[in-house]
Design a protein that fits this description.
heterodimer; A: alpha/beta; TIM Barrel; eight-stranded parallel β-barrel; 12 helices; B: Rossmann fold; four-stranded antiparallel sheet
Chain lengths: 271, 426
């Protein structure tokens, strides 16, 4: 069974919502990425979304762009990211890992080879930012063969027709982009989240996670009322960037993430 | 208007005869892209989901407009009365005389309002945006020509306009930045990466993802996700259609050779496309060779590039061993881009169009030659096409005809070129 399915089954059993953390592989460097992954799991993160750095991250806001740049300037490559995931697995980290990527680095690596190598390295799924279901035919069979999940995005602008199309191709979970725009922190959350999540559930039985712009414990709490899991990225990445490669990095990030996960772990008071 | 019956040449002279054996074939039944925007294995729609609905709407709206007589009449009308079409096909007598070979005709897109072919596409797209009820347009720009065209047409239709431009390009095309500001556009310098066209497109895409419901993205070349490569091509077909009629009237024959520079490739496709079915008409796209074909020193995607996916399309692009996009260099900001329009990749596969390159030095020489012997200062982009014409014409026969697309004028480049050439005011 894929670790992602296992994780959502577990969460359901515990009647809990999941917490997904995004970091960019190689920022501040790949060894630290491995340490961060282990620390994030200990801090309560359920699924790790690991970014493959790319020179032209057009769906990302400035925080993630800069992280990508830092990672590339310190020599992160697709191959080294996969090796880092092997290392993370050797460090007894068992949480599901989803690779968050732009298309060109993996296309250039060779789609089939990438899927194969990613599976061997301990990856559980892919989230490709530039790959709508219409273009996703290429690696489909290899993904199935290796039991890897293809995570698709649904946006506030997606029509119901598109949601149906996406649902047919999606596996693992569906990622709802909470607002129109690039990644990055926002002070408030969109009102449309609840109705869009409801529409997605009409067409898919997969867990629905919500991300983009979620940066505060109260956002996490609110969004978790409607989603199966909540994704936080930029707020963590920004802190990693601010602290850099210092001895207190791991402890500070753990503390920050714990404060974000905490609203999901309080005993339920309402239905 | 009916065309006189074309006289088609059988014999061919070529700059690279070894690569083009036999007569140049037509492309019977050529139709691209398919409904999903694929040009053979190229093109497509590789964008974030947030933009997919907007691209679907745009495609639907464009296809309706394309068959709508009223829309087409309106489009033609603005091309004529606002932009200044048709542009002349000018026989460059002294250049022809100097090179002692083929007769050289220049398609004078440089005479259009705002100074380049770019305005054809901008008028089309802004008319479409108006039909779709959008109130705001955004654009990227390299050399600033597309930005100026967008700012102008936006002003004319009362649209709010923001133009993204790499900070390096803001410096080397300063004049165009002032023009855009005077036209009421907001110019946003982009400081990411190498601060040129590619980064400007990234930033424009980010704006579009954020404001997609109110904003139309006026992409400036035959690039990006479907329907852009098709739609932008269609809006530029006037270049080749006019040129075809004009050359048949003026030279009494079809041309033997068409030459155009290729950044994204919009002026080239506009000229080439109406001739694709004319057997015997050879076509050459000229990319930016920069300082020579060394990593990071040029923008010739068909020389140092390979298949990849960037900013919405699958095509040839310049990338490193790890699939990261490579820095590029060209003296001309408009050609300084890591990827080439997907239809060009297909036309190259089909061997219908040849692609070569001209270096910065060759382009600057072409720039000066045209200025001094024809009294026309070309854009540095178009100077790449001229550089190839200068190389090729002497090897052709005197009864052969070539058309060079003079895609833009060089006013914007005067300051930059003077610096590069070491010219002083006195």
């Amino acid at each position: 069974m894929n670790r992602i399915d296992q994780k959502f089954a577990e969460l359901r059993k515990k009647n809990q919502k999941g917490f997904i953390a995004y970091i960019c592989a190689g920022d501040p460097d790949l060894d630290t990425t491995a340490e961060l992954a282990v620390a994030l799991e200990k801090a309560g993160v359920d699924i790790l979304e690991l970014g493959i750095p790319f020179s032209d991250p057009l769906a990302d806001g400035v925080v993630n762009q800069e992280a990508s740049q830092r990672a590339l300037s310190r020599g992160a490559t697709v191959d080294k990211v996969l090796k880092t995931i092997q290392k993370i697995r050797r460090m007894e980290c068992t949480m599901p890992i989803v690779l968050y990527t732009y298309y060109n680095p993996i296309f250039h690596y060779g789609l089939e080879k990438f899927i194969h190598d990613a599976k061997q390295s301990g990856v559980d799924g892919f989230l490709n930012l530039e790959l709508p279901p219409e273009e996703a035919g290429g690696g489909e069979r290899a993904m199935k063969k290796h039991e890897l999940h293809t995570i698709f995005l649904v946006a506030p602008t997606s029509s119901e027709e598109r949601i149906r199309k996406i649902s047919k191709k999606a596996s693992g979970f569906i990622y709802y982009v909470s607002r129109e725009g690039v990644t990055g922190e926002r002070s408030s959350m969109e009102n449309s989240i609840e109705s869009m999540v409801r529409t997605i559930r009409k067409h898919s039985r997969l867990p629905v996670v919500v991300g983009f712009g979620i940066s505060k414990p109260e956002h996490v709490r609110d969004v978790a009322k409607v989603a199966d899991a909540v994704v936080v990225g930029s707020s963590i990445v920004k802190k990693i960037g601010e602290i850099g490669k210092k001895p207190n990095l791991i402890a500070d990030i753990s503390k920050h993430v714990k404060s974000l996960v905490e609203p999901l772990r309080r005993p339920k008071t309402t239905k | 208007m009916r065309n006189p019956r074309p006289k088609i040449h059988k014999s061919k002279a070529s700059s690279r005869p070894a690569e083009t054996p036999g007569p140049i074939g037509a492309l019977p039944g050529y139709q691209a892209p398919d409904a999903a925007g694929h040009f053979g294995p190229y093109g497509g729609r590789f964008v974030p989901e947030t933009l997919m609905s907007a691209l679907e709407d745009l495609t639907r709206e464009y296809l309706v407009a394309r068959d709508d007589r009223f829309f087409q009449r309106q489009f033609r009308d603005y091309l004529q009365k606002y932009a200044g079409r048709p542009t002349p096909l000018y026989f460059a007598a002294r250049l022809t005389e100097k090179l002692k070979g083929a007769q050289i005709f220049l398609k004078r897109e440089d005479l259009l309002h705002t100074g380049a072919h770019k305005i054809n596409n901008v008028i089309g797209q802004i008319l479409l945006a108006r039909r779709m009820g959008k109130k705001r347009v955004i654009a990227e720009t390299g050399a600033g020509q597309h930005g100026v065209a967008t700012a102008s047409v936006a002003a004319m239709f009362g649209f709010e306009c923001t133009v993204y431009m790499g900070a390096t390009d803001v410096q080397r095309q300063e004049l165009n930045v002032y023009r855009m500001r005077m036209l009421g556009a907001k110019v946003v310098p982009v400081t990411a990466g190498q601060q040129t066209l590619k980064e400007a497109i990234n930033e424009a895409m980010r704006d579009w993802v954020t404001n997609v419901r109110t904003t139309h993205y006026v992409l400036g070349t035959v690039y990006g996700a479907h329907p852009y490569p098709m739609m932008v091509r269609d809006f530029h077909l006037c270049i080749g259609r006019e040129a075809r009629e004009q050359v048949l009237l003026q030279a009494k024959q079809l041309p033997d050779l068409l030459i155009a520079c290729v950044g994204g490739g919009s002026n080239a496709i506009g000229l080439f496309y109406p001739f694709l079915q004319d057997a015997g008409v050879k076509m050459v796209g000229v990319e930016a060779g920069g300082e020579g074909i060394k990593p990071g020193k040029h923008a010739a995607r068909f020389q140092g590039g390979s298949l990849g996916v960037l900013q919405g399309a699958k095509t040839y692009l310049l990338q490193d061993a790890d699939g990261q996009i490579m820095p590029t260099h060209s003296v001309s900001a408009g050609l300084d881009y890591a990827a080439v329009g997907p239809e060009h990749s297909l036309l190259r596969d089909l061997k219908r169009v040849d692609y070569t390159y001209a270096t910065d030095k060759e382009a600057l020489a072409g720039f000066q030659t045209l200025a001094k012997i024809e009294g026309i200062i070309p854009a540095l982009e178009s100077a790449h096409a001229l550089a190839h014409a200068i190389k090729t014409a002497p090897r052709m026969k005197k009864d052969q005809v070539m058309i060079v697309n003079l895609s833009g004028r060089g006013d914007k480049d005067v300051y930059h070129a003077a610096k590069v050439l070491g010219l002083k005011p006195v």
